[in-house]
Specification:
Layout (H helix, E strand, L loop, with lengths): L4 E6 L3 H13 L4 E6 L2 H10 L4 E4 L2 E2 L2 E2 H10 L4
Parallel strand pairs: 1-2, 1-3
Antiparallel strand pairs: 4-5
Length: about 80
């Protein structure tokens, strides 16, 4: 049985969200994908669920990926 991965995508651009989701699916990975278009929603999801990988847009409105990483680590994420 093929192992399933879980991925979180956080991006404020709906086109980019769907393009990355499509790219993951086309890559052949068996993946469950969760998507958020808001920084805070994505951070909350990352801290309350377990993901094999997280993709985040570097520049989100008022925030950026470096702040996300810092907040994620402070909140208990690995």
């Amino acid at each position: 049985m093929e192992q399933k991965i879980t991925a979180l995508i956080i991006d404020d651009d709906q086109v980019d969200l769907l393009a990355l989701k499509r790219a993951i699916k086309l890559s052949g990975f068996n993946a469950d994908i969760v998507m958020h278009n808001a920084y805070e929603d994505g951070l909350t999801e990352a801290l309350t669920s377990t993901f094999d990988c997280i993709f985040i847009d570097y520049n989100m409105p008022g925030e950026n990926a470096l702040k996300f990483i810092s907040s994620y680590k402070q909140g208990g994420g690995v």
